Amino acid sequence: MLRGKVKKVFPGNNTSEGxxxxxxxxxxxxxxxIYIIKGGxxxxxxxxxxxxxxxxxxxxFDVELHHCSSDNDSLDGVVIPALGIAxxxxxxxxxxxxxxxGAVDEIINLGIYWDKSRLTESKEEVISLSKKIARLxxxxxxxxxxxxxxxxxxxxxxxxxxxxxxxxxxxxxxxEEIFYGVxxxxxxxxxxxxxxxxxxxxxxxxxxxxxxxxxxRKVYLINGEPGTGAHRALQVILDEGVRMGLDxxxxxxxxxxxxxxxxxxxxxSVGALGLNERLSFNPGALQGLDSxxxxxxxxxxxxxxxxxxEEDITEMKKRIxxxxxxxxxxxxxxxxxxxxxxxxxxxxMDFTGxxxxxxxILNTILAYAGKGV
Length: 373
Fold this sequence. Notes:
By secondary structure, the chain is an alpha/beta fold. Helices cover about 40% and strands about 25% of the residues. The chain has 2 domains: about 5-115 and about 350-370, no CATH class; about 165-300, no CATH class.
């Protein structure tokens, strides 16, 4: 039996707007079963999901691993697309509650397997660490907000010097290429699934783009300074695809979540990615890729005008870099305290009970598979 493929994404992110969630896009609205896992830090939520995901991959099912932006070694969710089944961490800051209790959603409370008396003994330490973690996240978001203020100013410099008409022409040609020969479909509304392909994590910027584009046949890489039009190009491509009735995976920017970073049209096997100083990608990692087209929007900048602002631009880029590094450092400190917090929960857990529960859930999922769901 062939092992299933894995796709890795982020359902939430640490952004300039604070924690930003696309948890309602983890699985399609027509899901068959959603397991919402509750419990404190260190109770085994991520391991619970990892082991079920690994078991389903061994059974030949493709699996999506939804990573945690605050600790990308941990999971916030697992999806088995072929079965319409998801397991989701339903705790803060991404609280998830049942939408269709019993009929679709089921709560798995791992809190029933802890020794409450042991945790009560550590009450002061748990509260103190939780407050420190919250403070560090608040500080990290402040750094990202500072970066956003400077980034907006930097965008204004480049927007002033770019030949917008030439960029519009390039975007038009790109759309012509991507959707050439595509017959519009108006039988149903297209589904746009919104997630993150990269994230601000304790270890800096991390991305899983290679797993998202693993079946792509063609990829467009759009390179350009802030304000030259890369985000706008992606939005135009998405809008055109939706107008033609195509489903699309839309991955948002981990810094400015209202903007797009990556698009993938599964029916076309075509992706489009916006590159920046914090995001690089080697398309050579993709097997089966037929072609890569690199589009450089910087060619439409007025170099003479840019040179006039060179000193200001250099200083702004330095300030943005410093702000990002400050945010990542705070996220790293928050993770360190979170690890200490988990240290109070792990010894209080009955993991034998957790393992039995996990096996029961796995068997239930396999029963869905046996029924051909």
